[in-house]
């Protein structure tokens, strides 16, 4: 198969899962490479996501590693054989690869959970809100680069607004709802957009009020994307060094625990809607 110069996060995830299968079975890479009639170098490329793998080879690898989880194997086969070019590919070479990786991950997720403290979640943002955020964080961006960023963010909304929407649970701090990234009009339109989204049964938004006691999760912003099987769940954290996709089970367990802790500080969905509605009336 053709070598990939820049594998996507999903392709790298497939490779890391194949490596985990091999290592869990205690099989050296050279042995598995021989089984697949390939070289050790090519095996390393497969596990790095730089090269693909056929369904036949993948199933042979799983059998050799004594993996009996058929649902996991089938999910890995789907990842390996999927040749779909999503809408995000239109932005390749235009936006940073992480933007495309996130859109692809969201597209394939079975559910989405998000905690945001400082900003309204991207999946709920209006164009004017997104433009204000991008423009403030990157004031040097010319219009030719700013516009694609806003368009890409808006097109991501299809994952919760399309014909087959994904279940989405968002936790937003009151601070994010009150801060005006632009002006009063943009702020009110943003709150009304959130209320509109929550009219859909698959979208739940809960608010953490600023007067909530015992909330120490100011740095808790994260996204959790459900996989076709639990072993393929993915976490996302943003930090000073950029965006990181998380797939190690201990770290995913930490994110699940963190989400439950943050959840305890929220108003319920009905009270959150009332809260957001009151804020919109104040503007």
Radius of gyration: 21 Å
The gross shape turns out to be elongated
If you average the pLDDT, what whole number results?
95
- The strand count comes to 6
Biggest sheet layout: 6 strands, mixed
Counted by DSSP, the helix tally is 13
**Low-confidence blocks of residues:** none
First-last Cα distance: 57 Å
Overall structural class, as computed from helix and strand content, comes to: alpha/beta
Q: Percent range for helical residues? A: 40-55%
Order of helices and strands: HHHHHHEHHHEHHEEEEHH
**Spatial order of the strands in the main sheet?**
3-2-1-4-5-6
Strand content: 5-15%
Polypeptide structure, described:
With 283 residues, the protein is of the alpha/beta class. The model has no long low-confidence stretch (mean pLDDT 95). The termini are far apart. It is built from 13 helices and six strands. The relative contact order is 0.12. The longest helix has 16 residues. Helix 7 packs across helix 8 and helix 11 runs antiparallel to helix 13. A six-stranded mixed beta sheet has the order 3-2-1-4-5-6, with helices on both faces.
